[in-house]
Amino acid sequence: MKKTITLMIVAILLFACKTSSITDKKLDRKAQVAIKGNWVINSVYYPGSEYIKVNTFQLADSKCFEGSTWKFISNNNKGNMALTKSDCITFSSPITWFVNKDGQFVLKILNAGEKAKKVREGYILYLVNQTADSFQLIDKINVGGKMTDVVYQFNRTN
């Protein structure tokens, strides 16, 4: 009897202490609908950008993202992005994305034909300063033991 009670208590504690995932959070539909459309990253800036290189999304130097084009489709949280800056790699990929109620922008970069549920890694950025024609995504990175903001400035193209 004591064994059964102990097991029940342990089971209750395990379920009560379940951690919440970033993907379990409610979506911010209003923010998502406002992002719908075609965008370009006009600038990428962070303190020390003239001295420090940041490898964005494990793809390229952050400055290579300036001029990149992004398409966001809000009704299915899909889209695509393309790097086209000269003297940088050329890259294009489908993406999935969403914005949760905490203002976190969750992004997955997919390979062609790959399903988002098969991709286990993604990126969490913060959506700030959103207007009808612009918004910023902020990535937090560690530079010499200090957290630094990398700011991606998006502007609507149409």
Provide the structure class: mainly beta
CATH topology: Lipocalin
Overall pLDDT metric: 81
Helix content percent band: 10-25%
Number of helices: 2
Number of domains: 1
Oligomeric state of the chains in view? single chain
| CATH architecture term | Beta Barrel
Spell out the blueprint of helices and strands:
Blueprint lengths: L1 H15 L12 H7 L1 E9 L9 E2 L3 E2 L7 E5 L4 E6 L7 E9 L4 E6 L13 E6 L5 E10 L2 E11 L2
Antiparallel strand pairs: 1-4, 1-10, 2-3, 4-5, 5-6, 6-7, 7-8, 8-9, 9-10
What can you tell me about this protein's structure?
The protein is mainly beta and 158 residues long. It has a single domain (23-156), classed as Beta Barrel (Lipocalin), CATH 2.40.128. The chain is built from two helices and ten strands. It has helices at residues 2-16, 29-35; strands at residues 37-45, 55-56, 60-61, 69-73, 78-83, 91-99, 104-109, 123-128, 134-143, 146-156. The protein has an eight-stranded antiparallel beta barrel with strand order 1-4-5-6-7-8-9-10. A two-stranded antiparallel sheet has the order 2-3. The longest helix has 15 residues, at 2-16. The protein is globular, with a radius of gyration of 19 Å. The relative contact order is 0.19. Residues 1-22 form the signal peptide. Keywords: Signal.
